[in-house]
Amino acid sequence: MNRSGTLVPHRCVAIGGHGPEDVVADARGRVITGVEDGRILRLDHLADPDHVRVTVLAETGGRPLGLELLGDDTLLVCDADRGLLRVDLTDGTVRILADSAAGEPLRFASNVVALSDGSVYFTVSSRRYPLDQWIGEIAEHTGTGRLLRLAPGSETPEVVLEGLQFANGLAASADESFLVVAETGACRLTRYWLTGPKAGRGEPFVEHLPGMPDNIWRGAPDGPLWVALAGPRIPPLDLLHRAAPGVRRTAARIAVRAPFRPAAAIGVLAVDDTGATVHHLTGRSPGFRMVTSVCEAAGHLVLGSVHERGIALCEPPAPK
């Protein structure tokens, strides 16, 4: 069932840090996020937004992006500077799980998911551009994004899928038969099969998205996959992606030097495990731009943004 609706932040909550790129919710309705200066924060009392409490749980020493909670006490972190990390939320201890792959340093690790067998999968958005030049990867359309797997007990991740256009958000199907990868630069979701006759292969899952997908979040196992749309589709960008490599490289050099201001259009999408759209919520919000993550907590849809200094709270859509 396709349910379109309006996405309107009814409150923005300052968190004392810039760029809460990913937001995830724990079992108690608290939100965990990471900010630009390396801190991992927990936001309590979202049900009463006037009294939200912000607690510093850890400092990664880098730039945390995608997060995956393991219970209430452990957090996996994709750090754009340091690689794949494991954080103990009780004492703030940070351990590096992997900082290289296929003989090169891990840069721009983006999002992570842990499976029931102990394996950890995570994405790398670009092997050419760092986080602070992410727009160059979008413009040049290099296709250097990767999906990697860290086996239980291993310290060396293996590349299982490459050639992805800005590999970003990541989530597992309810039965863990496949993973869903957001390809921001291609405006699509890609499926990577874990089991069955197609195991080890990737294929389109949802194409021609109405915006550029970023982080993906799943709450209840039987709930939908919530996909943040970091920006609307841009027809001139689609045209640029069909241009010659030299033209794209020139455009990328210009893009990384030009001031960037996100569009005021915001959006999120929810899809089920067949790829059908359950919810598509859009709106315009000059006060909160570039939605890079979304989760449900304390009766709200919670939006994160790599661009803003806080989170936004929205009314959730009516259930199916």
Can you give keywords for this protein?
320 residues; mainly beta; Neuraminidase; four-stranded antiparallel sheet; 3 helices; Strictosidine_synth_cons-reg; 6-blade_b-propeller_TolB-like; phosphoprotein; glycoprotein
What's the topology here?
Elements: E1 3-6, E2 9-14, E3 23-25, E4 31-34, E5 39-44, E6 53-59, E7 64-70, E8 74-79, E9 83-88, E10 94-98, E11 100-101, E12 104-105, E13 109-114, E14 120-124, H1 134-140, E15 145-150, E16 158-164, E17 167-172, E18 178-183, E19 188-193, E20 202-206, E21 211-218, E22 225-232, H2 235-240, H3 245-255, E23 265-271, E24 277-284, E25 293-297, E26 300-304, E27 310-314
Helix pairs in contact: 1-3
Keywords: Glycoprotein, Phosphoprotein
Pfam families: SSL_N (PF20067), Str_synth (PF03088)
Protein name: SMP-30/gluconolactonase/LRE family protein
Strand order, largest beta sheet: 1-24-23-22-21
What is the N-to-C succession of helices and strands? EEEEEEEEEEEEEEHEEEEEEEEHHEEEEE
Number of strands: 27
Number of helices: 3
What is the count of structural domains?
Answer: 1
For the largest beta-sheet, the strand count, sense and barrel status come to:
5 strands, mixed
The name CATH uses for the topology is Neuraminidase
User: How would you sum up the global shape?
Assistant: globular
Q: Judging by the overall fold, what is the CATH architecture?
A: 6 Propeller
How much of the residues is beta strand, in percent? Answer: over 45%
Q: State the CATH class.
A: Mainly Beta
Helix content: under 10%
Structural class: mainly beta
Q: Return residue spans where pLDDT drops below 50 for at least 5 consecutive residues.
A: none
First-last Cα distance: 8 Å
CATH superfamily: TolB, C-terminal domain
